[in-house]
């Protein structure tokens, strides 16, 4: 192994450079003028050995860094493990990362070099990702492997205090909304934590356009209809021909994401993927409410009325009619629901981590899909549909 990556959540980026200098203090260390690269050279009797640290920062390379985090989050998310609490906290840690240090050596990483890398990690509270897919803490202990193994009973998430929801500006509307949500949770006997942050306020929120929401709603409904047919044992070719006819009817070919297109084109759809796509009815249900086709978004204690959901689109008959009949709800209404589902989802995740039934009658699956749809509606982290994050 000649390389690995150190990931950090930190406010003062200079501390990363300082940690490299301290950990490799016995070597000649040079930092580039822009601070993006550091080289440590060990001149021995029988040849020179070097190690290079390539530093990527979220503030300097936001698009590239976001893609990196999405890939890492998706990789960890799909790992099946008996250490669910560790996995959930690692996912939370990933969402808070803002510095990545690619470490490349001219030689195999020997125990002394690895010890120095872990010293760096400890100084900046980082995690180390190895080429084999293993993630280590700063003590060198296995946090999570691709096979779901872990040497930890728990994992402590470390986030620099000045980065906690730093993308969200404090606002009166956000704080007031949080208080209203907490009161509702208390009335319904649902656990909550006061230090869970606010979401974006009315002053700074940007919602999806009516056209975006309409197109996403149509795509979600059609992908769920197709997936439902597949999971119920229907002939894949017949199900595809059927849904292609409806896609043409609504002019919806361009409405699907890359992931959805791949699913629609798969000659032998994976059953697990199909079941996940059936869950898109719950997301579609939220968008029907956001478009004014549903008067109320009821408590997420049971799955939606699938037949009623399909009927809304069926009765419209085409894209133009569905678009014309839609009236996008106010920013305040959508943010109210987004804040509430954020806190509902925390209660569900907390119950899952501690292996207990969530109080208050919440359905964890319904809550998660509503959280996905509402975060997309409020452009959370500016993620596209395939990469919507549902932090709790």
Task: Give a description of the structure.
With 392 residues, this protein is of the alpha+beta class. 48% of the residues lie in helices and 11% in strands. It has three domains: 3-144, TATA-Binding Protein, CATH 3.30.310; 172-206 and 330-387, no CATH class; 210-325, no CATH class. It contains 14 helices and eight strands. It has an eight-stranded antiparallel β-sheet with strand order 2-3-4-5-1-6-7-8, sandwiched between helices. Strand 7 (135-136) and strand 8 (142-144) form a beta hairpin. Helix 2 packs antiparallel against helix 3 (84-96). The chain is globular, with a radius of gyration of 24 Å. The mean pLDDT is 90. It comes from Brevibacillus brevis. InterPro entries: DUF4272.
SSE order, one letter for each helix or strand: EHEEEHHEHEEEHHHHHHHHHH
CATH architecture of the largest domain: 2-Layer Sandwich
What is CATH's topology name of the largest domain? Answer: TATA-Binding Protein
Q: Within the largest sheet, what's the order of strands?
A: 2-3-4-5-1-6-7-8
- Overall pLDDT level: 90
Integer count of domains: 3
The total of beta strands comes to: 8
- Please indicate the percent range of residues in DSSP E strands (runs of 2 or more): 5-15%
Shape: globular
Radius of gyration: 24 Å
| Number of contiguous helices | 14
In the predicted model, the low-confidence regions spanning at least 5 consecutive residues are none
Estimate the helix proportion, in percent.
40-55%
Span between N and C termini? 35 Å
Largest sheet: 8 strands, antiparallel
CATH level-1 class of the largest domain? Alpha Beta
SS-based class: alpha+beta
């Amino acid at each position: 192994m000649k390389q690995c990556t150190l990931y950090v959540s930190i406010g003062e980026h200079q501390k990363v450079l300082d940690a490299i200098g301290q950990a490799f203090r016995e070597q000649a260390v040079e930092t580039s003028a822009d601070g993006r690269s550091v080289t440590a050279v060990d001149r021995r009797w029988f040849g020179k050995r070097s190690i290079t640290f390539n530093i990527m920062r979220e503030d300097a390379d936001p698009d590239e860094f976001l893609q990196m985090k999405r890939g890492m989050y998706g990789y960890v998310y799909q790992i099946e493990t008996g250490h669910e609490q560790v996995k959930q906290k690692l996912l939370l840690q990933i969402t808070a990362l803002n510095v990545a240090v690619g470490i490349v050596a001219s030689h195999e990483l020997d125990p002394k070099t690895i010890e120095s890398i872990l010293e760096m990690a400890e100084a900046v509270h980082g995690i180390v990702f190895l080429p084999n897919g293993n993630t280590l803490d700063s003590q060198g202990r296995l946090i999570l492997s691709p096979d779901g193994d872990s040497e930890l009973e728990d994992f402590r998430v470390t986030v620099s205090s000045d980065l906690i929801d730093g993308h969200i500006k404090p606002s009166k509307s956000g704080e007031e909304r949080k208080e209203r949500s907490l009161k509702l949770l208390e009335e319904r006997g649902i656990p909550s934590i006061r230090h869970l942050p606010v979401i974006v306020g009315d002053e700074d929120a940007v919602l999806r356009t009516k056209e975006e929401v309409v197109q996403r709603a149509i795509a979600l409904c059609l992908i769920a209809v197709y997936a439902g047919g597949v999971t119920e044992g229907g002939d894949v070719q017949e199900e595809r021909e059927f849904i292609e006819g409806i896609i043409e009817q609504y002019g919806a070919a361009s409405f699907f994401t890359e992931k959805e297109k791949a699913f629609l084109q798969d000659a032998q759809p994976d059953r697990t993927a199909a079941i996940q796509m059936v869950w898109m009815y719950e997301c579609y249900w939220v968008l029907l409410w956001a478009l004014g086709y549903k008067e109320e978004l009821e408590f997420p204690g049971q799955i939606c009325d699938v037949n009623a959901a399909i009927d809304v689109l069926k009765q419209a008959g085409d894209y133009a009619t569905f678009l014309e009949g839609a009236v996008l709800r106010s920013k305040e209404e959508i943010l109210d629901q987004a804040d509430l589902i954020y806190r509902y989802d925390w209660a569900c995740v907390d119950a899952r981590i501690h292996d207990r039934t969530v109080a208050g009658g919440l359905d964890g699956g319904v809550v998660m899909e509503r959280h996905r749809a509402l975060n997309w509606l409020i452009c959370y982290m500016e993620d596209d549909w395939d990469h919507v994050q549902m932090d709790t």
